[in-house]
Specification:
By secondary structure, the protein is an alpha/beta fold. The chain has 15 helices and ten strands. It is globular. The protein binds nicotinamide-adenine-dinucleotide and SN-glycerol-3-phosphate. SN-glycerol-3-phosphate binds next to helix 8, helix 10 and helix 11. This is Glycerol-3-phosphate dehydrogenase [NAD(P)+].
Length: 337
């Protein structure tokens, strides 16, 4: 399968889109990065640095930067979606007619759309046609943008129902410090990336309250059980959640101080109000909105997700964090499972 000749558009010039576009350019792929903010795109094209979302890293000289969507999408063999999930549908509505019918569609964003409770694969199916799922790849795993940009060793998973598409993505992204695995469980890989952000907020809350290492380890473990239960109900393969896009990313985001989701939770645990926390953040913490999506999904599917429920109540119903933890601990005693 062709890989070296890929011409790739990266849609979204936040920290992750910029880091991934830079990996591709360093790998010798013909890569164009679309940036939403016009002034930032002009600055990046001139100064080769994303001062807003990925300061401190010089971009590869071959990486093309633009705020013009038609220019970014012209004559591409692969597109990589990396905008926040809640604006993905709007961006795709502008991009749809510019995307070729055999272009590989890759998504690296992690979340569930609020109004529809859909993952990005289903948003793509609605906006680009059901057939696009045959060339759709979910790219996910434990990967902080800043560490990837610094060239630190990182692993990721490319999941698709189409093995050849997954292999093209694997080949386009892999290099000596960035290693991609293939997988065929799109549902599990997408769900893992979305749910871990919610559990990371809960882990941050737990640490912000000063509850210690035992509590955090327990929360990660029981969070994984919730992810697994929801995944199985939605047709995912349970083994996926033991992998990079499940446990791997859950552990990273629940313990790594670079996580925006964990940071939101930590500040909540320390007593700050959500509005105050979000007002001083210019980046996205997908778990804030995805907490509501996952909570609604769990209710509609009848899946028990007590940590997600409490995270939702703290975030969106003003439940005091300490009270939420007391309620979690007071639940009926049961067998582990
Ligand atoms: N940053 C990471 O380390 C990392 C790693 C893996 C996955 N992700 C995922 O990647 C996705 C993007 O996150 P990020 O960290 O790159 O973003 P970011 O927080 O660094 O930046 C926010 C992005 O949102 C864009 N944006 C805001 N409003 C928009 C609009 N109306 N239309 C289009 N774009 C708009 C901005 O241009 C910018 O690209 C998220 O789903 C995130 O969970 C991030
Ligand atoms: O900073 P966060 O919390 O959005 O997490 C970033 C990545 O998803 C980690 O894999």
């Amino acid at each position: 399968m062709k890989s070296n000749g890929e011409r790739i558009a990266v849609i979204g010039g936040g920290s992750w889109g910029t880091a991934l576009a830079d990996v591709l350019a360093r790998n010798g792929r013909d890569t164009t990065l679309w940036i939403f903010e016009q002034d930032l795109a002009a600055e990046m094209a001139a100064n080769r640095i994303n001062t807003l979302y990925l300061p401190g890293f010089n971009l590869h000289p071959a990486l093309q930067c633009t705020s013009n969507l038609s220019e970014a999408l012209a004559d591409r063999t692969m597109i990589l979606l990396v905008t926040p999930v809640q604006v993905m549908r709007t961006v795709l509505s502008q991009a749809a007619e510019l995307i070729g019918h055999d272009t590989v569609i890759v998504n690296a964003s992690k979340g569930i759309e609020l109004k529809t409770l859909l993952p990005v694969s289903r948003i793509c199916a609605e906006m680009l046609g059901e057939e696009s799922l045959n060339r759709y790849v979910a790219l996910s795993g434990p990967t902080f943008a800043r560490e990837v940009a610094a060239g630190l060793p990182s692993l990721i998973v490319a999941a698709s129902r189409n093995e050849k598409c997954a292999q093209r993505v694997q080949s386009a992204f892999s290099n000596p410090t960035f290693r991609a695995y293939t997988n065929n469980d799109v549902t599990g890989v997408e769900l893992g990336g979305a749910v871990k952000n919610v559990i990371a907020i809960a882990a941050g809350i737990c640490d912000g309250l000063g509850f210690g290492h035992n509590a955090r380890a327990a929360l990660i473990t029981r969070g994984l059980a919730e992810m697994n239960r929801l995944g199985v109900a939605m047709g995912a393969q349970p083994g996926t959640f033991a992998g990079l896009a499940g446990m791997g990313d859950l552990v990273l985001t629940c313990t790594g101080d670079l996580s925006r989701n964990r940071t939101v939770g930590f500040k909540l645990g320390q007593g700050m109000r959500l509005a105050e926390i979000l007002a001083e953040m210019h980046m996205v913490a997908e778990g804030v909105k995805t907490a509501e999506s996952v909570y609604q999904l769990s209710r509609s599917l009848g899946v028990e997700m007590p940590i997600v429920e409490k995270a939702f109540q703290i975030l969106h119903e003003d439940k005091p964090a300490r009270e939420a933890v007391t309620e979690l601990m007071a639940r009926d005693l049961k067998a582990e499972g």
